[in-house]
Amino acid sequence: AQSVTQLGSHVSVSEGALVLLRCNYSSSVPPYLFWYVQYPNQGLQLLLKYTTGATLVKGINGFEAEFKKSETSFHLTKPSAHMSDAAEYFCAVSDQGAQKLVFGQGTRLTINP
Amino acid sequence: EPEVTQTPSHQVTQMGQEVILRCVPISNHLYFYWYRQILGQKVEFLVSFYNNEISEKSEIFDDQFSVERPDGSNFTLKIRSTKLEDSAMYFCASSDRTANYGYTFGSGTRLTVV
């Protein structure tokens, strides 16, 4: 069965610093990978996704993630954090052609002034 | 930008009562989903719905749960006899293709069973 592990339930960075949120997955076949963001009192918003092709994918709000098959990872990065990036971030995986997403436990990102 | 709308945003119900959570998916989407998130835990898949029938469901989605698309716009989740452990945030989502392309989620209904 698929599973997703997000290392660190809470990450805190200073404004302007690099953001790195870690995600590792276990899957028997190459999955499709997603990052979602949840702002307070809002739904889950798709940040970016990897399906096929280029392993470095760019998303909204300056975020990007790289699929590394050898490391079974899909870490999310942003070069320079903004206060508005404070939110909960979820990594998710699905099998090709599947209906459901399997989510990680989420990482709460805090930005310090 | 099109949105998935969920009502109510917060519902409190007594244990044993029936509750219906409502969702209006994006109008041209064909796939509909319910997920839930118990406080402090992962977002968990409940059920997917396509072509007016359940296409996949999790072990959580037992006989106490049902889904329905009563008309062309609404998608509902019914819990027949609520339990304390049903307290969670319930998210509706829709997509125009399979999960591979990402869903659009609603903002959720927080269900509190007392």
Global geometry of chain B? globular
Q: What is the helix tally of chain A?
A: 0
Low-confidence stretches of chain B: none
**For the residues shown, what is the average pLDDT of chain B?**
92
Rounded Rg of chain A: 13 Å
Give the CA-CA distance, first to last residue of chain B.
Answer: 36 Å
Class by SSE composition of chain A: mainly beta
Describe this structure in words.
The complex is a heterodimer of chains A (113) and B (114). In chain A, a hairpin with a 5-residue loop joins strand 5 (32-38) and strand 6. Chain A is 0% helix and 51% strand. With 113 residues, chain A is mainly beta. Chain A is globular and about 40 Å long. Chain B has 114 residues and is an all-beta fold. In chain B, 0% of the residues lie in helices and 50% in strands. In chain B, strands 2, 4, 5, 6, 9, 10 and 11 form a seven-stranded mixed beta sheet that branches. A four-stranded antiparallel beta sheet of chain B has the order 1-3-8-7, with no helix packed on it. Chain B is globular. The model of chain B has no long low-confidence stretch (mean pLDDT 92). Chain A binds chain B through residues 32, 34, 36, 41-46, 49, 51, 90, 92, 94, 96-106, and chain B through 4, 6, 31, 33, 35, 41-45, 48, 50, 55-56, 58, 91, 93, 98-108.
Give the SSE layout.
The complex is a heterodimer of chains A (113) and B (114).
Chain A: E1 3-5, E2 10-14, E3 19-21, E4 24-26, E5 32-38, E6 44-50, E7 56-58, E8 64-68, E9 73-78, E10 87-94, E11 102-103, E12 107-112
Parallel strand pairs in A: 2-12
Antiparallel strand pairs in A: 1-4, 3-9, 5-6, 5-10, 7-8, 8-9, 10-11, 10-12
Chain B: E1 5-7, E2 10-13, E3 19-24, E4 31-37, E5 43-50, E6 53-57, E7 65-68, E8 75-79, E9 88-95, E10 104-105, E11 109-113
Parallel strand pairs in B: 2-11
Antiparallel strand pairs in B: 1-3, 3-8, 4-5, 4-9, 5-6, 7-8, 9-10, 9-11
